[in-house]
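Entry 14. Ran structure prediction on the chain below.
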Amino acid sequence: MTAWLSFLVVFLCSWSLRDLVVEACTCVPIHPQDAFCNSDIVIRAKVVGKKLMKDGPFGTMRYTVKQMKMYRGFQIMPHVQYIYTEASESLCGVKLEVNKYQYLITGRVYEGKVYTGLCNWYEKWDRLTLSQRKGLNHRYHLGCSCKIRPCYYLPCFATSKNECIWTDMLSNFGHSGHQAKHYACIQRVEGYCSWYRGWAPPDQTIINATDP
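Output, C-alpha cells:
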C-alpha cells in the first residue's frame, strides 16, 4: 500500500507539473513591424539540419540554417549559421522543418548565439504578404521610432504624434490581422507617424477602424 501511495503521489505531481509547463508559453500580440524593430537578427533562411543539445531541463534545439538574406543585425552578426530555441513547445520552443521551407526568422543574440521562440516572429517565407516583404526590405526601418499601440476596445485614440493605433485585435489576433499583413507605421516628413498601406486591398470588415 505504501509503495502504491508513493507512486500515486509522484504520478499526480508529475501530471500537475506537466500541466503547468504546457500552459507556460503565453505571448503578447505584436505587430510584425515591432517584432522586426525589437529583434537583434532578422533573416530569411532555410533549415538544413538540427541537433538536440543537452542543456537545461528539457534541452535546446540547435537548427543549422542556410542564410539567404539578412534584413537586420549586420553589425551584430553578419552571417547566421545556427538558430537556438527551447526543445519544448510548452517553453515557447519553435519547431522548424529541415530541408523543406525557407523561413523568415527573428531573434535575439545572447552570448554570441541567436535565439528564437514562439513569441518571436517566424513564418514560412511563402506565407508572407507582399506588403510584409516590402516592410522587411525597407518600410519597417522607417517606423522603428514610431509606437504601435494595440487597441482591444473601441474607441481608441493616439495620445502622441508618433503613435499608430493597431486594431487587429478587434477581429483577429496578432500576425493574422489585416493591419499586420498589409500596413507599416512609418514616420512622415512632418514628424508624425501614420499607417502606410502600399498595395494592400482595403479591409471590408471594419474599414473605418483599420483602413485610415
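The two ends are 70 Å apart (CA to CA). Will compare against last week's run tomorrow.
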